[in-house]
Amino acid sequence: MSKLKPLSSSARRALIISLIQNGRVESQADLVEQLAENGIAVTQATASRDLDEIGVLRGRDATGYMRYQLTSASTPTARGFAELILSVEASGNLAVVRTPPGGAALLASTLDKASTSGTLTSVIGTIAGDDTVLVISRTANGGAGLAKELAKFSSSQAIKSSKKLAPKNVKGRK
């Protein structure tokens, strides 16, 4: 088993949303176990606070099992994006999205799913680091529009449009 690591609360909550959407989380203990399987160590108390903060409800699903379910206010586009997008910059057909540490892969995965499902048609793909996601637009000059579209989901609404991503002058280079 991989080493358990801490994760920012917003990235952890985005993972919880993903676990609830893509699987069956029946109890807080079940959630703690599933997070541990993903390399995230949390206590039951932390899991409880996260579930409250996300705003999920526990009820019977279509098959009759009691499990946690997302409400419209806790879906990734309404909730996860707002917590994961700190800032967005655009250049040409690219948008660079800054996230809390550990949040980039979760955001990139959500964007990729939205793209393949037809919800976010302007995205052709993503590349994620630890706290940065490179989002590639389908059109040659679509970065600025894409940045504005992504920033709608952000709680900080920080958007920048730039001509270049590379620094103009880096000392020490010849």
TrEMBL record:
Key words of the record: Cytoplasm, DNA-binding, Transcription, Transcription regulation
One cellular component (GO) term of this entry: cytoplasm
Locations listed in the record: Cytoplasm
Alphabetical list of Pfam families matching this protein: Arg_repressor (PF01316), Arg_repressor_C (PF02863)
Major location category of this protein: cytoplasm
Record-annotated Arginine repressor DNA-binding domain positions: 10-72
SUPFAM superfamilies in the record: C-terminal domain of arginine repressor, Winged helix' DNA-binding domain
Domain Arginine repressor C-terminal per the UniProt entry, residue ranges: 81-151
Record GO biological process: arginine metabolic process; protein complex oligomerization
MF-aspect GO terms: arginine binding; DNA binding; DNA-binding transcription factor activity
InterPro entries noted in UniProt: Arg_repress, Arg_repress_C, Arg_repress_C_sf, Arg_repress_DNA-bd, WH-like_DNA-bd_sf, WH_DNA-bd_sf
HAMAP family according to UniProt: Arg_repressor
Family: Belongs to the ArgR family.
UniProt protein name: Unannotated protein
Organism: freshwater metagenome
